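A note from the maintainers: we've had questions about how concatenated examples are separated. There is no special marker in the raw files; a new sequence line simply starts the next protein. For clarity in this README we add a label.
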Amino acid sequence: MRFAAVVAFCLVGGIAPAVADSCPGNPNAIGTSRTIEVDASALPRIGSMQYRSTLPLNDHEVAITFDDGPLPPYSNRILDTLASECVKVTYFLVGRMASAYPDVVRRIYNAGHVIGTHSQNHPLTFDQMALPRIEREVGVGIASVQAAVGDPRAVAPFFRVPGLLRTKQVETYLASQSLAVWSADEVADDWHKGVTAKDIVRKAISRIEAKGHRGVLLLHDIHPATAMALPTLLRELKAKGYHIVQAVPVGDRPNSVPEPPAPAIAESGGWPRVVKTNLPSPDKATKAVHHHKRAIRNDRDPVIAASISDKKRRAQTAASSFGWTLFQR
């Protein structure tokens, strides 16, 4: 099946040349070795966790993806790490989060990362929803991310179903919209309650090795443990001879998008730093943080779901950046 995928890629856009090896300021960076163009008509479903096809990666090649954001300060910390290592990845953004933090969305794109979408509200009920609601979650989510990034051409036709809870109805609808459906090859359980940065690195490396020393890795940029794990994970991948590959959509995309005014300002102190932002209305950020608490109420899925109490704690951590209390104790 992997051979068939390679043939398909060669026919519809192929494999782009490797990027430059040098990384300014960090000669030991792992960098990004090459890009692969993805056409949904040739590779409509990606990820061996759920499908028989995945990206046509060579031995010791990994494509990194991040879900659920953006959410400062953790998304910003991850972007700092990726920049320092000259690593390019793919993001699957939640519409409401993108609307709340458009400055982070534009930073993601202008740093050279690919932006896909992950629904508007991240409901863990895609396998139960009627088609009209599926259409709204997908369509509004895409529109929100497009508005946040400032240019519809900057949003790739890549979609990851929340909780990976796909059904035939979901897949058929996404195909009708010419969206490539992304699952994953490996996960690092970075959403689990009590997970540490060391746990994330260990699970990511061991599962990549178990899957043939290659794969699409699913992480989340909304958790402090993931942000703390990423530098070590990239160093260990390099030490073990791995290379980073970025999947990009076929077709033209803007080189950059305009940066929004008044970027976030971090207070002094240790990391994670408290971040203040001048959002036009605090209500937008309140709703964006609340959506994670609501989404996790369905705890049936063993892959993505975490405890409600843990999500409440994480949401309150984010809300504290604005001086708000979301949950009464």
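[label: protein 2]
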Amino acid sequence: MKKYIGVKSFYLLLVFIILICNFNSVFAASKTELNNEQKDIDAKINEAKEDLKHVEKDKSAALNAISKLTDQISGYENEIDDLNGDITDLDKAISGSQTKLNEAQNEYVKQEELLNQRLIAIYEAGDISYLDVLLSSSSITDFISNYYLVSELASYDTELLEKIDSKRREIEKAKKDLEDSKSKIEIAKKNKQTKSNELKAAKTDKDGQVAKLNAEEKQIQSDLDEFAADKRAIQKELARLAAIEKQQNSNSGNNTSNVTNNPSSSGFIKPVVGYSITTGFYGYSGHTGVDYSGSGISGKPILAVKSGTVVTSTALKNASGAYKSYGEYIVINHHDGTMTLYAHGAPGSRKVSEGQKVTQGQTIMNVGTTGNSTGYHLHFEVLINGKPVNPVPYLPK
């Protein structure tokens, strides 16, 4: 990060002016006067240093407060996204339950009408029983025919009653599911409103803290905010792709192994050979992965930790063409519930493109320092449903 030199420069300039103003008098003064003036100057310098410490402390406090508020805002936004997803799913559940309920009720009405017709037919036949029908047969052939007819009618009546009872239970379940979904959606909407209010308050608080920053700090904070927005957009897109794949697997009956609950089964290798993690997951505010760095890492090959399909291979740049955020970065879908992200690669070093199949250990890029980076390193993330999780459990020791 850049040094906050604006305030320091101001106080150094103040001290310099004080020294210049006293320059002539120092040479004309006596030893005692010189000592006294020196004491005054020292006192002013010390006073300036103390003031500077207070200013730096205030600025640090403001930046720390903004950092915490940024994390809170990100958390609220993620929670609201989750609640929106819940509301969408519940809307679909309500629609499905209502459709099932309508179908069951229509079928119930039809079957009830058939039963009523059977009862009317039996009533109109008077006291004639199934036995009467059989005994009135004129021949053995007629007897067999009548026996078959009676059996079919008895079977039909029993089946009809069972269908009616089954539809009645189906209607009751559909009604219960519908009411449960409606209750849940009301809770989700209330929670969303609460989180939206908390998000609004956090953003207002953050705006107030940002106003306390100097111009240089505001620019740094603006860059960090842009980075956070870029990351959020990337995570939403990856979550969308993960949801599509999950639905496709569900429709095809494909059951992929769920490594989200068993990271050790992921089978990942290290993304950079010979280097270790130097900054961990959330090692600082907003850090959603781990960093690999060390002497001589610049230009080293970045490896795919596992086979998969490249879903993103691009460079993030601002309007002026300068790198921002992740800089040169790649995302690989491993089709097992995980995706991995590799960021800050060397300019133009990406060796794979979107849609390409890659194998474990294949070189996909070289280590660089593009984007929001202060030195040569690889930023590595593991994502589940588009959300970053701690990569350490997935990586070899």
